[in-house]
Amino acid sequence: xxxxxxxxxxxxxxxxxxxxxxxxxxxxxxxxxxxxxxxxxxxxxxxxxxxxxxxxxxxxxxxxxxxxxxxxxxxxxxxxxxxxxxxxxxxxxxxxxxxxxxxxxxxxxxxxxxxxxxxxxxxxxxxxxxxxxxxxxxxxxxxxxxxxxxxxxxxxxxxxxxxxxxxxxxxxxxxxxxxxxxxxxxxxxxxxxxxxxxxxxxxxxxxxxxxxxxxxxxxxxxxxxxxxxxxxxxxxxxxxxxxxxxxxxxxxxxxxxxxxxxxxxxxxxxxxxxxxxxxxxxxxxxxxxxxxxxxxxxxxxxxxxxxxxxxxxxxxxxxxxxxxxxxxxxxxxxxxxxxxxxxxxxxxxxxxxxxxxxxxxxxxxxxxxxxxxxxxxxxxxxxxxxxxxxxxxxxxxxxxxxxxxxxxxxxxxxxxxxxxxxxxxxxxxxxxxxxxxxxxxxxxxxxxxxxxxxxxxxxxxxxxxxxxxxxxxxxxxxxxxxxxxxxxxxxxxxxxxxxxxxxxxxxxxxxxxxxxxxxxxxxxxxxxxxxxxxxxxxxxxxxxxxxxxxxxxxxxxxxxxxxxxxxxxxxxxxxxxxxxxxxxxxxxxxxxxxxxxxxx
Length: 600
Ligand SMILES: Nc1ncnc2c1ncn2[C@@H]1O[C@H](COP(=O)(O)OP(=O)(O)OP(=O)(O)O)[C@@H](O)[C@H]1O
Known about the structure:
- By secondary structure, this protein is of the alpha/beta class.
- It is 66% helix and 10% strand.
- It has helices spanning 2-10, 12-24, 28-59, 66-113, 120-123, 126-168, 170-217, 219-224, 228-280, 286-328, 391-398, 421-426, 442-447, 455-464, 468-473, 491-505, 521-535, 547-552, 570-576, 578-588, 590-595; strands at 350-358, 366-375, 380-385, 406-411, 414-415, 428-431, 509-513, 539-543, 555-560, 563-568.
- The strands form 2 sheets. The protein has a 6-stranded mixed beta sheet with strand order 6-7-8-3-9-10, sandwiched between helices.
- Helix 9 (228-280) packs antiparallel against helix 10 (286-328) and helix 19 crosses helix 20 (578-588).
- It contains 21 helices and 10 strands.
- Its main location: membrane.
- Residues 350-586 form the ABC transporter domain.
- The chain crosses the membrane at residues 29-52, 72-93, 150-167, 173-191, 254-277, 289-310.
């Protein structure tokens, strides 16, 4: 992400415009309608100046009569009605387009983000991504839904007013033209600064968001360690930094507006002075001067309005850049050019063939080093080893969250890089160490394993996972709300729901990361029972922490610093592998040695 940020900064304007045009394309009709309404309302507003001129020169002249006044007023009423209708259409359509485009952008960014490789989220914080999808799209919605329309309307009035000024009095208008560079130069200078600062400001707000997210998510830890005061201070400094950056931006914008007002109104005053002399000397009529004043003020006001929204447009450019960066981020896990499809009745056989893998952030450190393993279909393999040995990495590689650096992983004899990631993961279910529950009901959380499952399927899965009984006892049974992340359930209950989810998914390959935290004997027993049922008839790879698991699996692979150092059954390894014997005695205390005697 760091790289595109810089390049996007340079070519933002063009890129931003192009991307927005792409998002506007489906709504051509609405854009056309809004443009027509915009041109009409600007035209009507421009014609008011002519009305003023006629009213003064004809309406109040000596030969005027009531009839003429009536006609003039009738015409005015029609104009007002048209202006009202035009304004309604313009406002409705432009706001609609703004909302629509920002909704589409949100959908596009989210749908892209969920396909990105997990490594992406190590460098891009969730709070930052959230802020891009919410705050940045809202900013774009405001800009497309109003600022652009204000800018265009004022641009039309500026051009229309200027043309009239030129036709009616070139000398005075020359004064306007002289002031143009004086006005444009500061707009460009301040505008550029506003834009850079707005990007900075949004980044700072995003970091405020991330901080809140983290603190609130881990509120128990924060309070348990009495960290509120320190967190408050840290948060205050985040907020103050964001405030300072915002003040810098406001300062530039305030100067932008001030400078514009002084220059533009100064020019208008000069025009009035010269025009006043012309009227006094009889070169132009009073109506013409009134109309001239009207258009001059309109031109000045439109320049002011454009400069006002110019800052918004600049901020929107910053927001768009940030969104485009997300949209342009490539997933490192690519679907194959010619995907192989798996046969309908796959067996679930796994092979690691000389797999070496280094995380992209640490390319010179092999987390997995020349690992070869064969896991026959339907058998179970336990991965054991000290912390950092590479067990979780093996699971991540099997799910193709990362691609191997060398060697290959075969699923039913097919290199997993030749499979669509979706096709591969369809056959895999994962029960993580910390079961992840989403905000929703118990039933929703189990259904996550297979979205089209019936209620009966869900109950059956819960029964198999030994979860049915406790779910029935919850206040609303399967419809009970689990709270954010499942806070309303105990650790063992969450695990059994995660197991029920995997049972429902009915995968060929089961990936299991056993919880390290000890459950009470009863929960432990139930979770173990549930797991055994889940493992029946499936290929299982489990990161083992329980004695019961290592005793029951078909084979144990002992990893050390990414290398396979021994493999076999528990009883064999206890006598043959000193590393395993030590690990087992540490892990299971005396039980490990006793278990060696358990006959298989
Ligand atoms: N996202 C990552 N980026 C860079 N290095 C990583 C990443 N995840 C893990 N590692 C490194 O890869 C090595 C293997 O880590 P892994 O998480 O697979 O170990 P593990 O055996 O599962 O350990 P534990 O039992 O503590 O979970 C470690 O040296 C670790 O520091």
